[in-house]
Amino acid sequence: MKPDDAKAEANVDDIDRIIHEPARLNIMLYLYVVEKGDFTYLLHKTGLSKGNLSVQLQKLEQSGYVEITKEFVERIPHTLASLTKQGRRAFELYKETLIDILQASGS
Hints:
Number of strands: 3
Number of helices: 6
CATH superfamily: Winged helix-like DNA-binding domain superfamily/Winged helix DNA-binding domain
Number of domains: 1
Strand order of the largest sheet: 1-3-2
Shape: elongated
Radius of gyration: 16 Å
Strand content: 15-25%
């Protein structure tokens, strides 16, 4: 199979559903460009509620895409999130898959 044939075969079923959900995609986008992001940073950047952000981070953590670190700074809880190597690679594959699908569709 030629490389172009592989792109032509890319379809929506190849998209990573964990990342593709809009709230999680938004989180992944912001974490991809920073080494670590704290909960407040992600809260403001994504526009999600505290509860929704927490749930989506848990799902990304369970998938192995995000690592959550909880610490105390001057006795105040501080939550940091960062992409794991697996998460960074999954995001790169997600981007490649979307590009392949768009190219195959003639867009």
